[in-house]
TrEMBL record:
HAMAP family: 16SrRNA_methyltr_A. InterPro entries: KsgA/Erm, rRNA_Ade_diMease-like_C, rRNA_Ade_Mease_Trfase_CS, rRNA_Ade_methylase_Trfase_N, rRNA_adenine_dimethylase, SAM-dependent_MTases_sf. Residues 22-194 form the Ribosomal RNA adenine methylase transferase N-terminal domain. The keyword Coiled coil does not apply. GO terms for molecular function: 16S rRNA (adenine(1518)-N(6)/adenine(1519)-N(6))-dimethyltransferase activity; RNA binding. Gene3D superfamilies: Ribosomal RNA adenine dimethylase-like, domain 2 (1.10.8.100), Vaccinia Virus protein VP39 (3.40.50.150). S-adenosyl-L-methionine binds at residues 15, 17, 42, 63, 88, 109. It comes from Arenimonas terrae. Belongs to the class I-like SAM-binding methyltransferase superfamily. rRNA adenine N(6)-methyltransferase family. RsmA subfamily. It catalyses: adenosine(1518)/adenosine(1519) in 16S rRNA + 4 S-adenosyl-L-methionine = N(6)-dimethyladenosine(1518)/N(6)-dimethyladenosine(1519) in 16S rRNA + 4 S-adenosyl-L-homocysteine + 4 H(+). This is Ribosomal RNA small subunit methyltransferase A. It comes from the Bacteria.
Length: 270
């Protein structure tokens, strides 16, 4: 049997989880049930993969590092049915992967250098995803889960919370990994909201409002959103033009997007 011989690759964000207690906590948080379609992003040397496979019997993993493919396959023999997709996760069409067989449950100790692109990629396929349990930099998880008034409340918080419920589960120190990363980590659970609950008719308009509003977070909405709408529009949507983005609830961003989207074509943001 070949083992995992290649040294960790920095450019692929390889920090392998080695503390059994945190691995167990992740498996407990995922709590797979018969019939669940588990997909792990970045299995690495299998720290989370094999406990999950043992518990659930089958698992699909997406790994970009070719040096890990054969060792993963060999190590899975006798443990369970492991399907390996050797690809960049950003090129994987989760909707296609889910097919007609039910939504996916995504799990992963994500490569931190591309964690935000992975989150937004998963959001694009939110209809094919039942939930996500991800290990990320704690600083990113804090931003994802924060609310109005917090210094770290921003674009990431609003975009994710508009489409998912976000729950920070627990923190993980650098010493739990080999090699240890420079920062603290945390595990977060994301559960995509049902389409009817999201209530965003024009996702591109919503995204633009959020991006511009936080692009200049010290400015009032009236000034930050100059390219999108007028102060009168903001008022007509039921919001204060002199408020700042960091004071607005997710629902208020949605309210503004709904109002602007309902304007006649000439008055709507281009
Ligand atoms: N799950 C393992 C663990 O907890 O020990 C490894 C986690 S390590 C932080 C991230 C993993 O993602 C590595 O195995 C790395 O090779 C893989 N990876 C990095 N970029 C990737 C990409 N674009 N697509 C798929 N996997 C990727």
């Amino acid at each position: 049997m070949s083992t995992f011989k290649a040294p960790p690759k920095k450019n692929l964000g390889q920090h392998f989880l080695s503390d059994r207690s945190y691995i167990d906590r992740i498996v407990m948080a995922v709590n797979p049930k018969p019939g669940d379609r588990l997909v792990e992003i970045g299995p690495g040397q299998g720290a989370i993969t094999f406990p999950l496979l043992k518990k659930h019997g089958e698992l699909t993993v997406i790994e970009f590092d070719r040096d890990l493919i054969t060792p993963l396959m060999e190590a899975s023999e006798g443990v369970g049915r492991l399907t390996i997709i050797h690809k960049d996760v950003l090129q994987v069409d989760f909707s296609r992967l889910a097919g007609d067989e039910g939504p996916l449950r995504l799990v992963g100790n994500l490569p931190y250098n591309i964690s935000s692109p992975i989150l937004f990629h998963a959001l694009e396929h939110a209809g094919a995803v039942r939930d996500m349990h991800f290990m990320l930099q704690k600083e990113v998880v804090d931003r994802m889960a924060s609310g109005p008034g917090s210094k770290v409340y921003g674009r990431l918080s609003v975009m994710l919370q508009a489409y998912c419920t976000v729950t920070s589960l627990f923190d993980v120190p650098p010493g739990a990994f080999r090699p240890p990363p420079k920062v603290d980590s945390a595990v977060v659970r994301l559960v995509p909201r049902p389409a009817a609950e999201i209530g965003i008719a024009d996702p591109a308009l919503f995204e633009r409002i959020v991006r511009d509003a936080f692009g200049q977070r010290r400015k009032t909405l009236r000034n930050a959103l100059q390219q999108v709408c007028t102060g009168a529009d903001i008022e007509a949507a039921g919001l204060r033009p002199d408020a700042r983005a960091e004071q607005l609830e997710v629902a208020e961003f949605r309210q503004l997007a709904t109002y602007l989207g309902s304007l006649p074509p000439g008055a709507r943001p281009a």
